[in-house]
Amino acid sequence: MLKGIQREQEIEEIWNKVEDKCLEHNLKLLSNIKDYKNNKTPIKFLCHIHSKNENDYFEKNISSFLTSKKGCTKCGIESSTKSRRKNVIEIEREFLSKNMLTVDVNENNYVNKDLSLINFICLKHWDKGIQNTTYNGFRNSNNSCKFCICESTSSENHHSWKGGITPLQNYMRDKINPWKVDSFSYYNNTCIVTGTKNNKNIIHHLYGFNSILEEALLELKLSIRPEVNMYNQEELKSIEDLCLTKHYSYGFGVCVFYEIHNIFHKIYGKGNNTPSQWEDFITKIKYGEIKIPQLKVA
After folding, report:
1. Which bin fits 269, alpha (ψ -120 to 50), beta or left (φ > 0)?
2. Is 42 helix (H, G, I), strand (E, B) or coil?
3. I need a labelling partner for 186 at 20 to 30 A (CA). Which of 30, 56, 74, 284 fits?
4. Where are the domains of the chain?
5. Residue 117: beta bridge partners?
6. How far apart are the C-alpha atoms of 125 and 156, rounded to whole Å?
């Protein structure tokens, strides 16, 4: 008698857990406590998301049901998948760091790092249109753009090749002379570090010249070509005009003695330079962290 009562209490306790889980996950329980035999007893339930009608029910044994996260297998898979998803904003930033722009990436169409394809445009090969790759494919390769990969294996990309943006950059330097003249005038041809006025002062780009040129090409939807003569006159004129306009939009360059300028680039590198690098450089000079040698300014 006592064992029978104890058994009934155990069954009721287990069934209460089943009902609580259904309530927690918005599941409709179709089975009855009278169906219970043991923890392997199958129960039937409807999922508010995945059941289309009363006949579209799910079935699990009690033990599996109670140990599962969601009760409903499909809900559990979706929850697990979502937890493994990479944050979409993170993905966009990672692609941009490799000079690629993601296209229509959102929580709805990005599901699996191994299988889901991410559409992107290579900013270097804008004119080639949309390409795609998986996230893991992107992370595990130096470059996901097939045109960049092709170029990287060509002789042009040997360490001694000086092609790419360099010829165009050299050509464009003469086209920004009005900006240089105005920058010299703004600082009265006086080095902002030494306070000297002489013919060895130059204009330093606070925002890298290569970055400005690349922005102009991107805006004009023109690719980087190995030789200047690969652009027609109309294209070159549009690059010149926009590049000069962008120089003024970023403000004047800094007038500085050429040897100090060389020290800056030895520390911070050439290309992709930023105003914050210059501020850091000047601060370190001010507090003696960067030593400026005795300069011959005559």
Report:
1. left
2. strand
3. 284
4. 2-81, 86-157, 166-286
5. 134
6. 16
Short-list 260, 179, 163, 185, CA closest to 212: 179
Coil, strand, or helix at residue 9?
helix
CA separation for the pair 29, 23 (Å, rounded) = 9
Token representation of residue 133: 């790759």
Q: What is the DSSP letter of 123?
A: S
Q: Is 196 within 8 Å of 190 (Cβ atoms)?
A: yes
pTM attached to this predicted model: 0.46
Six-digit token string for 110: 């990005």
Tracing tokens 């590049």 back to the chain, one arrives at 243
Length in residues, the chain: 298
Q: First and final CA of the chain: distance in angstroms? A: 112
Nearest Cα to Cα of residue 168 among 221, 122, 223: 223
* pLDDT tens-digit series, residues 10-49: 888 998 998 898 888 888 888 888 888 888 888 888 888 8
CA 54 from centroid of its chain's CA atoms = 46
Per-residue pLDDT of 126-184, as tens digits, reads 777 888 887 777 776 766 787 776 666 443 443 333 345 567 888 898 899 999 999 99
Pairing of strands 58-61, 42-47: antiparallel
C-alpha angle with apex 124: 119 to 127, nearest 5 degrees? 70
- Judge contact between 66 and 18, C-beta under 8 A: yes
Instruction: Record the tokens describing residue 204, joined without a space.
Output: 């330093």
If we measure between CA atoms, which residue out of 205, 229, 231 comes closest to residue 217? Answer: 231
CA distance 11 to 184: 89
